[in-house]
Amino acid sequence: MAGCGLCFSLLLAAAFARQAQALWPWPQYIQTSDSHYAIFPYNFQFQYHVSSAAQPGCSVLDEAFQRYRDLLFGSSSWQPPEPTRKQHTPEKNSLVILVVLPGCDQLPSLESVENYTLVINDDHCFLLSETVWGALRGLETFSQLIWRSPEGTFFINKTEIEDFPRFSHRGLLLDTSRHYLPLTSILDTLDVMAYNKFNVFHWHLVDDSSFPYESFTFPELTRKGSYNPVTHVYTAQDVKEVIEYARLRGIRVLAEFDTPGHTLSWGPGFPGLLTPCYSGSRPSGTFGPVNPILNTTYEFMSTFFLEVSSVFPDFYLHLGGDEVDFTCWRSNPDIQAFMKMKGFGNDFKQLESFYIQTLLNIVSAYGKGYVVWQEVFDNKVKVPPDTIIQVWREEVPVNYLKELELITRAGLRALLSAPWYLNHITYGPDWRDLYVVEPLEFEGGAQQKALVIGGEACMWGEYVDSTNLVPRLWPRAAAVAERLWSNKSVTNLDLAFKRLTRFRCELLRRGVQAQPLNIGYCEQEFEQT
Amino acid sequence: MAPARPAMRHRGLGLAALLALLAAVAPRSSAAAEPPLWPMPLSVKTSPRLLHLSRDNFSIGYGPSSTAGPTCSLLQEAFRRYHEYIFGFDKRQRRPAKPNSAIELQQLLVTVVLDSECDLFPNITSDESYTLLVKEPVAFLKANRVWGVLRGLETFSQLIYQDSYGTFTVNESDIIDSPRFPHRGILIDTARHFLPVKSILKTLDAMAFNKFNVLHWHIVDDQSFPYQSVTFPELSNKGSYSLSHVYTPNDVHTVIEYARLRGIRVIPEFDSPGHTQSWGKGQKDLLTPCYNEHKQSGTFGPINPILNSTYNFLSQFFKEVSMVFPDHFVHLGGDEVEFQCWESNPEIQGFMKQKGFGKDFRRLESFYLQKLLGIVSTVKKGSIVWQEVFDDHVKLLPGTIVQVWKNQVYTEELREVTAAGFPVILSAPWYLDWISYGQDWRNYYKVDPLHFDGSQEQKKLVIGGEACLWGEFVDATNLTPRLWPRASAVGERLWSPEDITSVGNAYNRLTVHRCRMVRRGISAEPLFTGYCDYEYKT
């Protein structure tokens, strides 16, 4: 049903339903017509259906109603319109929401169902969903359907939508180590993610350059490893706020603590953790990856990840594992001796595997699942079958589609990021390159393809901070959002360009500093403050 | 043409790069280090002797022999601005002075030596030189004109930093400064995307921080005509994106005055005969009707150069422009004229025959431009044109400025234009709309405009350059981080002495300067991994 209905719906959109062209990402099934209903802000409300499992007091939806009311109508108070204006068009004065399952106080998870049905016709103005998360997605779609006449009246067209995501993991990575991002930048990003139906915030919290995560078990990590221990840190309260803000928008927070490489900033706060590099027969004073041969390392990791496991409620943690540089390990005589003792020969990948396997055991003992970068798979670390592998390299060791094939053939789940490194910029409309990616275009059966659980757009921070984050992210990340949400057949670039152009103007209207796709204008331009 | 995708696939840093980075980031303004000035002055001497300043006890005033005084609003406003730039806008940041024996700097005394030019507009010959002597208990800033004072105030503000206790501190210093080139411009394009006036004003602020002195306002183009003409109101009524996407006479006046107060000239560009599609909507018969198989196709080409009505229109239009924009120069464009439409039009063909131009449409283009240049000189304005006008052998009046923008062999173009005796502005290597991954500011920085084959006389004809931010993919959302600090690299190249070329040294200073801009409210993007004490808050 979905496939054929979709062809029909695309035709419809192209033919006459102008307003539907503002939808982003495109729903799985949509039918709209030109007949429409007026909406008057003074009396419009969101309402729980009597038999809805969620009722007033449901924080996720109560707050969403307030947000969408403000997004649609602003926070000003509205007067009833003059009676003459009211007569002509039928009116809708509420959207009735019915959520089947309770769960307002839970957190979204990889398994959360985000399906929803939206019906706006003569008899109904109705949003049905299995979960509150589906209702959030439906509210966003509803908000994108409302348009305003030149006279200022709000309208919504007769519409029926059945919608659900193609992939269940639709993520965006921010890097708060290369540059610290103020809390407001993160929260603002979560808002725009919700507009795009993203559902995972991959928080690359720490890296070589700085350690802004304030650990209560090891406060020295931040004190010595952050850019500034007062102004450039995320306190426990900040982290809580991010998690709750994300939850209210149906977004999971996937925290990454990347080891054993990318850890230079951990060193000053926990002496002995990093491998001392040698120059000839003496320590050179510089440090390499986490030292994998010491018991103290694993004691530290046990304690640290115990904290992390309780601070971040999502079932999954990201453990990194990418780009381990072997030069330093190779230079260190203690490591050399350990290699010999273990019979690793000169194969440092085996040492890396040794480390990662020990770490995975620690983390799984805390009842957590994990995501790792593809090197962990490439280097043949033995991982439990429920490990998720994130593919980030475009061509090495193999093309990313081939890599997906290999990972899923091994029975592991995969996430795709390789073609979606948004920090790489070029002149012109590069959103098209992001958009035309088809994550399942590799050799393999349906079972194998089902193991690709989604993807992530990555905004690494070498050249990005709060000055340029927003225009660099949006609307480019929106291209990835549609690829991960919409039906596989939604690939028409011209239609996408038209809708994305309008969506970008809608983002501006909502106060998001989203950059232009090409020459043109928006009714409401971004105003500098 | 698109820049190559970055070869770098690794998302992180190599260890070596990281160590280099740590080395580069670590030392912040220690007392003996070179002050992080941008652009670097002609001569800087600093002593290790430190003076302290406090918000409440420090003031900027006039020296006894200054020709300018409190009636000069340009300077009054500059004093107030710089007091705020120095001490920050947030009054709560005040901290008790560190109890020590450091000496306090209480005043900066400004002396204008010659006729101040306080109420004039800056021009191509304006004197921007100054000397700055920072000594206890009073610092002295001396300049021939107000323009030098503005540049000197910027330098003075850059000398001051907060020590680790938060105390405002300055080293005793002795600075002599004047620009290497008199024309240091930024081009903005308000036709491909409309830029709200606020964005333009913000850009002027940042330009002043980088000692730029020309705003090249590419105000109209094919896509839209936001300039509201008093004589021909239909041009923007029909040719703008919408009625809210226009610059009213009041907006234009606001920009010009805001620029003047910062020592910045505003040079408007009304590009013709190409790049004029948007003009056609509000001015009937101005554009050439294109033909398809002996019939008008309904599309239009460049301005129609064979009609008297065209030149009547241009005379009136540029008469208005010459009154609205006080600068002596108007930019007339003249780039990228497409000949197909002219070729298709039978009346133009007839005109070509009658004039004996044969099939050489460049001669028709020259015919048009010569008439236009004549019109502009009768309203007592000088002209700037894009390089094609020179390349296509249009007869130019002496003193017409040629702007070089084509990136292929621009050094050769510089040689030819100056050999022909025309002043030249360089832009070719500084198209900032071309973005790529990584530190492209280094490429802008390494350019030297005088590295071409030519005599001393020829080199004197290079009056400066412009960083161009064309607007196809730029509007108010991304203008500022795309311009700054990348344009700063061009700013230093055009201001500082020829021998200021160390990229490593520039990196250290520019990193601090970037944070300074951020602190002043400019969302200048980072050069590389690192941080600012005060990050940009949205």
TrEMBL record, chain A:
SUPFAM superfamilies: (Trans)glycosidases, beta-N-acetylhexosaminidase-like domain
GO cellular component: azurophil granule; beta-N-acetylhexosaminidase complex; cytosol; membrane
Coiled-coil segments: none
All residue ranges annotated as the Glycoside hydrolase family 20 catalytic domain in the record: 167-487
Stored InterPro entries: Beta_hexosaminidase_sua/sub (IPR025705), GH (IPR017853), Glyco_hydro_20_cat (IPR015883), Hex-like_dom2 (IPR029018), HEX_eukaryotic_N (IPR029019)
Signal peptide limits: 1-22
Domain Beta-hexosaminidase eukaryotic type N-terminal: 23-145
Enzyme class at the top of the EC tree: hydrolase
Stored Gene3D superfamilies: Chitobiase/beta-hexosaminidase domain 2-like (3.30.379.10), Glycosidases (3.20.20.80)
Disulfide bonds: 58-104, 277-328, 505-522
EC numbers: 3.2.1.52
Domain of life: Eukaryota
Catalytically driven reaction(s): a ganglioside GM2 + H2O = a ganglioside GM3 + N-acetyl-beta-D-galactosamine; N-acetyl-beta-D-6-sulfogalactosaminyl-(1->4)-alpha-L-iduronyl-(1->3)-N-acetyl-D-6-sulfogalactosamine + H2O = alpha-L-iduronyl-(1->3)-N-acetyl-D-6-sulfogalactosamine + N-acetyl-D-6-sulfogalactosamine; beta-D-GalNAc-(1->4)-alpha-L-IdoA-(1->3)-beta-D-GalNAc-4-sulfate-(1->4)-alpha-L-IdoA-(1->3)-D-GalNAc-4-sulfate + H2O = alpha-L-IdoA-(1->3)-beta-D-GalNAc-4-sulfate-(1->4)-alpha-L-IdoA-(1->3)-D-GalNAc-4-sulfate + N-acetyl-D-galactosamine; Hydrolysis of terminal non-reducing N-acetyl-D-hexosamine residues in N-acetyl-beta-D-hexosaminides
Molecular function as annotated in GO: acetylglucosaminyltransferase activity; beta-N-acetylhexosaminidase activity; protein heterodimerization activity
Protein localization: Lysosome
GO biological process: adult walking behavior; carbohydrate metabolic process; cell morphogenesis involved in neuron differentiation; dermatan sulfate proteoglycan catabolic process; ganglioside catabolic process; glycosaminoglycan biosynthetic process; hyaluronan catabolic process; lipid storage
Family listed: Belongs to the glycosyl hydrolase 20 family.
Biological role: Hydrolyzes the non-reducing end N-acetyl-D-hexosamine and/or sulfated N-acetyl-D-hexosamine of glycoconjugates, such as the oligosaccharide moieties from proteins and neutral glycolipids, or from certain mucopolysaccharides. The isozyme S is as active as the isozyme A on the anionic bis-sulfated glycans, the chondroitin-6-sulfate trisaccharide (C6S-3), and the dermatan sulfate pentasaccharide, and the sulfated glycosphingolipid SM2. The isozyme B does not hydrolyze each of these substrates, however hydrolyzes efficiently neutral oligosaccharide.
Name this protein carries in UniProt: Beta-hexosaminidase
Automatic annotation (TrEMBL), chain B:
Signal peptide: 1-32
Cellular component annotations (GO), alphabetically ordered: cortical granule; lysosome
Residues of the active site: 336 (proton donor)
Domain Glycoside hydrolase family 20 catalytic positions: 181-497
Recorded GO MF terms: beta-N-acetylhexosaminidase activity
EC number: 3.2.1.52
Cross-referenced Gene3D superfamilies: Chitobiase/beta-hexosaminidase domain 2-like, Glycosidases
Family: Belongs to the glycosyl hydrolase 20 family.
Protein name according to UniProt: Beta-hexosaminidase
Taxonomic lineage: Eukaryota, Metazoa, Chordata, Craniata, Vertebrata
